[in-house]
Amino acid sequence: MFNRFLAQLQGLWHDLSHFPWRTTALTLRERFREDRLGLTASSLTFTTILALVPFFTVALAVFSAFPMFGQLQGVLQRWLVDSLIPDSISRQVLGYLTQFSSKASRLGVVGLSVLLVTALMLFLTIDRTLNAIWRVRKARPLGQRVLVYWAGLTLGPLVLGASLATTSYVISSSRGLASGLPGGVQLLFDTLEFLLLAGGMAAAYHYIPNTRVKWAHAWVGGIFVAVGIELAKKVLGYYLAQVPTYSAIYGAFATVPILLIWIYVAWVILLLGAVVTAYLPSLLAGVARRGGGHGWQFQLCIEVLQHLEAARRAGDHGMTVDAITRAMQLDTLQLAPVLEALQALDWIGLLQEGSDDAPARYVLLADPDATPLAPLVQGMLLPHSDAVSGLWEQARIRSLWLRDAMPKTA
């Protein structure tokens, strides 16, 4: 048993030592800049501030509707204070939320409906953001999304509170045994909090994007977020303790800017975790090519057409997405907008043969000898306008055919 455990540790160390850390860091920086994740985190911070009170009100209403879960409410509140928010502002934030939520319960049906819609808006924004990171163009139907988020909004606090209360009860019932464990009870609770946060984020990365995400990849993203949140809490807590600037300037109002900063940092970590999850397959596969400058997607379109033309000449029935990505040394997410653009031009088509389990293949529909190249140049490289009309005429772009971008055949 020990030898097996040692072999697993050696295998884990081998995987970590060969993991493309530098490529991952470059990918995070590239996606953070090109996808404007900083701006997205700011938008989500604003939406979160608006949705905090509605979300807390709905959660309290769920607990109030079931008196038997009254103890779970206290356990869940303590967990939120201890694990998700820095200690310097956690208790003030919880007090404000409880106060606002108690007043919100007197708004009536119309007022509570508005609060509920505000809370659902946060979930819809998260859905749209994660689908954009995964390059998903078609989201789930609105009714299906609202149903899933409503279930998460109502059942999520109950499930989380029940699991925390059960663990708390087991540990308190066997306090003598638990206190004798290495690290004591605090280590056990810290581990539980870490796994709950990582598991919650893994579930979000697995279920929210309208595409297939492996659980293993989702767990990597969830662990990334859990580690990042813990580090951010420590850094922010240390900074506020050493440099009490906000307290000196804002006084009792200091909780508000600190909370805004924390929510923004948390969203940046969550979005970077989504990027890690989305691009993990290509990182593990060692994709060599990275995005270039302007005209990169135009070049990729030409390469896709060349590979599909070569497959047609060889007598193959098109190419799967995996085959195209391997041939071009690209990631599926890099290729998705290119395939979509070519499909919009009706130059390529998706062919599903045999059973539903068989991979779909892309086939070339356009005739290279009879298809003008201008629509692709217009859409992916240089839009025609009065400022560049002379260039279009001198370069004779309208007289070029798709065959001119294809390799010469014997």
What does this structure look like?
The relative contact order is 0.08. This protein has 410 residues and is an all-alpha fold. A two-stranded antiparallel ribbon has the order 1-2. The chain has 17 helices and 2 strands. The protein has 2 domains: 35-285, no CATH class; 296-405, Orthogonal Bundle (Arc Repressor Mutant, subunit A), CATH 1.10.10.10.
In short:
The chain has 410 residues and is mainly alpha-helical. Helix content is 72%, strand content 2%. The chain has two domains: 35-285, no CATH class; 296-405, Winged helix-like DNA-binding domain superfamily/Winged helix DNA-binding domain (Arc Repressor Mutant, subunit A, Orthogonal Bundle).
Features of the shown structure:
410 residues, mainly alpha, Arc Repressor Mutant, subunit A, two-stranded antiparallel ribbon, 17 helices
What's the arrangement of strands in the largest beta sheet? Answer: 1-2
The count of helical stretches stands at 17
- Rg from C-alpha positions? 27 Å
Question: Which secondary-structure class do the elements indicate?
Answer: mainly alpha
| Average of per-residue pLDDT values | 74
Strand tally is 2
Morphology call:
globular
> Which spans have pLDDT < 50 for at least 5 consecutive residues?
166-181
Number of domains: 2
Terminus-to-terminus distance: 63 Å
Order of helices and strands: HHHHHHHHHHHHHHHEEHH
Give the fraction of residues assigned to helices: over 70%
| Biggest beta-sheet profile | 2 strands, antiparallel
Assess the beta-strand content as a share of residues.
under 5%
